[in-house]
Write a structure and sequence with these properties.
It is built from 3 helices and 5 strands. It has 145 residues and is α/β, with parallel strands linked by helices. It has a 5-stranded mixed beta sheet, sandwiched between helices. It is globular, with a radius of gyration of 15 Å.
Length: 145
């Protein structure tokens, strides 16, 4: 029987939201790691994929450049969205899940816009989406709320 293709999972969201950190957390100890940075210039500058297995299922995680980068950063939101669009259309096995990464205290008006562009626009609501909110440890005593 043929091995099923890995499930493609796309991590996207605001620059510095913690996309690469989440990918690394899911990869665990043994696998290759994504670069994480404190730099205002942004860390992930192109799409990069990481293969892993979780509970016997193969996954390919795609770490992507941040949206809504400031003027100090090398490329615009339009560039980042274009790059995401090309990635989503280039995956021959399709996309199983979109993971929208948002940093809690920085939730802005662009959140809804970017959600709609990716979920409604590019993916035509055919791909499930989850949101991960990072950076809540100092703001929210009860993170579940
Ligand atoms: N306090 C806090 N810091 C976090 C959290 N998640 C990530 N960070 C830190 O935030 C910084 C940016 O994290 P990255 O994972 O590089 O963020 P990114 O979204 O991949 O950034 P770009 O690739 O530049 O768009 C790093 O210093 C991380 O250690 C979180 O939940 N809380
Ligand atoms: Mg990154």
């Amino acid at each position: 029987m043929a091995t099923p293709a890995p499930r493609n999972v796309i991590f996207f969201g605001t620059a510095g939201a913690g996309k690469s950190s989440i990918v690394n957390m899911l990869l665990g100890e043994k696998d290759e790691k994504a670069l994480v940075s404190n730099s205002a210039l942004g860390c992930t500058s192109s799409n990069k994929d990481y293969s892993t297995a979780i509970e016997g299922r193969n996954y390919r995680f795609y770490d992507t450049p941040g949206l809504n980068q400031g003027s100090m950063r090398p490329f615009s939101t339009a560039d980042a969205l274009r790059s995401l669009y090309h990635l989503l259309h280039s995956l021959k096995d399709g996309v199983s899940l979109l993971v929208y990464c948002v940093r809690g205290p920085r939730v802005t008006g662009s959140l809804e816009r970017d959600y709609k562009i990716l979920y409604d626009g590019v993916c035509q609501q055919h791909v499930p989406i989850v949101m991960i909110v990072t950076g809540l440890e100092d703001q929210e005593p009860d993170m579940e709320s």
